[in-house]
Write a structure and sequence with these properties.
By secondary structure, this protein is an all-alpha fold. The protein has helices at 15-30, 36-47, 51-78, 80-107, 112-144, 149-177, 182-204, 223-227, 232-253, 256-262, 269-291, 299-318, 320-323, 328-360, 365-372, 374-393, 413-436, 442-456, and strands spanning 398-402, 408-411.
Length: 457
């Protein structure tokens, strides 16, 4: 259902029905990949493997999200109808097959077939659905909302971030309510639900009638030709600061639950997780809408990195994670760090496509955005893994009360503090890249020249 099929007037030319609603249906479905921590332990116990072994399924999902976006960006560019259908089929099939392999693992404990099957289903097949589903609505939104591109893409990407807050309580309820084998039944049920949601989004999604993609081999310049319209260091700077923002976000977010336990808020961990998910979604919408008002959209990244650096330094200097329990001020500082990093993590995602369009135009934005999402792929393999390595190899594990089942809780406050040294160093590098490599957009340069001319008069 391309642009040729849209008509003047009626729902077919309504930007909310043709762009915003389908984008939310797609992103609110695929964004549930971030619910992994809700059921990862249950999967490990059900199939007889350690949690560490099953964790790779999530890492693979994020990796293949980024890589499929990078390699399938041209398909999205040419035909969003085809790409959104690929996303729908792959995501739903990946979820259903994950349920099948969990069921198989429950009946054949310690089976490598079950573990590898989960890696392929949740990691590779779902990952392809994630990458194509993430990209498909973005250019369409920017075409429909030319004047508020940041708000439009922020709305959709906020759906990706909000999916965890929406789906987490539903999944927890299903796990407890479906009885024996609830974990694999949940995957099979949700596969059907998300297929319906995404298929409706696929049917509704369409570009504006006035936009026609160039046809033929010579209709568009190659991606490298487009990128070379600016110094190549400009794009390298954008890619690296995007990668660093995701890596730092994943490093802290992956340790969020034990950090909350360290500061004495174990009983409120679920509420804090929901609030942080809201900040993640709010950052996607708020930072991108805010960037619409700026002459240079890169300014929003400078703000994100400065806020992240300041909040990280405050927790490092006060050793808030280590000394926070019982100290209201330190608890507030630690929570502020968690919420600010979540907001900046989300804002980094929502501003990338619009920043790229400001620099390189709309012609090949899906393909360029797709290549840039490869940063997400590599960050998915490094962020939480590096944080886990730091926690496991520095500091000391101590007993910190018991959980609801009476099991002893162990935490490593010094290890979590040490993760902040890693994230702080990277945030500083990102800010330097942002200041030195990423050039002002043409719009910003024109505004600066006009202001200079006005002063001269």
């Amino acid at each position: 259902m391309g642009a040729q099929e849209t008509k003047e007037g009626g729902w077919r030319s309504n930007k909310w029905i043709r762009a915003a609603i389908p984008a939310l249906l797609l992103h609110c479905s695929i964004g549930t990949v971030y619910c992994w921590s809700i059921f990862s332990q249950e999967i490990a116990e059900y199939i007889g493997y350690s949690k560490a072994a099953t964790e790779w399924a999530f890492s693979f999902a994020i990796f293949f999200l980024g890589m499929s976006a990078a390699f399938l960006g041209n398909i999205v560019e040419k035909d969003i109808h085809k790409s959104s259908l690929i996303a729908t089929i792959c995501f739903a099939a990946g979820m259903a097959l994950t349920g099948v392999f969990i069921w198989y693992g429950g009946n054949h404990q310690h089976s490598p077939v079950a573990l590898v099957g989960i890696y392929l289903s949740y990691g590779f097949i779902m990952g392809v659905g994630l990458g194509t589903g993430y990209l498909s609505p973005v250019k369409t939104l920017m075409l429909w909302f030319q004047d508020r591109k940041g708000l439009a893409t922020g709305l959709a990407v906020a759906g990706f971030g909000a999916a965890k807050a929406i789906a987490s309580p539903i999944m927890q309820s299903m796990l407890s309510g479906l009885g024996e084998g609830g974990i694999y039944k949940m995957f099979m049920i949700l596969a059907g639900v998300y297929f319906v949601m995404m298929f409706i989004g696929h049917l509704l999604l369409a570009k504006p009638a006035g936009w026609h993609e160039p046809q033929g081999k010579d209709a568009k310049p190659s991606i490298m030709e487009v990128l070379k319209t600016k110094p190549i260091t400009n794009y390298i700077g954008i890619w690296l600061m995007f990668y660093i923002n995701i890596t730092c976000g994943l490093a802290l977010i992956s340790q969020e639950k034990p950090i909350v336990k360290c500061i004495g808020l174990a009983a409120s961990a679920g509420i804090i997780s929901t609030i942080s998910a809201i900040f993640n979604a709010g950052g996607r919408l708020g930072f991108s809408a805010w960037a619409d008002t700026m002459k240079d959209r890169n300014t929003i990244y400078k703000l994100i990195f400065i806020l992240s650096i300041v909040s990280t330094v405050l927790v490092m200097v006060t050793q808030g994670i280590k000394n926070g329990e019982g100290n209201v001020l330190l608890i507030v500082l630690v929570l502020a760090l968690i919420f600010i990093v979540n907001a900046g993590y989300g804002g980094g995602f929502s501003n990338v496509p619009t920043l790229l369009s400001d620099h390189y135009g709309m012609g090949s934005i899906s393909a360029i955005h797709g290549i840039t999402l490869s940063a997400w792929a590599f960050a998915g393999l490094t962020g939480n893994q590096v944080a886990t390595y730091i926690v496991n190899h520095t500091g000391t594990w101590i007993e910190h009360g018991t959980d609801a089942a009476g099991n002893v809780i162990k935490v490593n406050p010094v290890g979590y503090q040490n993760v902040l040294f890693f994230t702080l160093a990277l945030y500083v590098v990102a800010l330097v890249l942002c200041l030195l490599l990423v050039r002002p957009t043409d719009k910003a340069l024109e505004a600066k020249a006009a202001k200079k001319a006005a002063k001269a008069e």
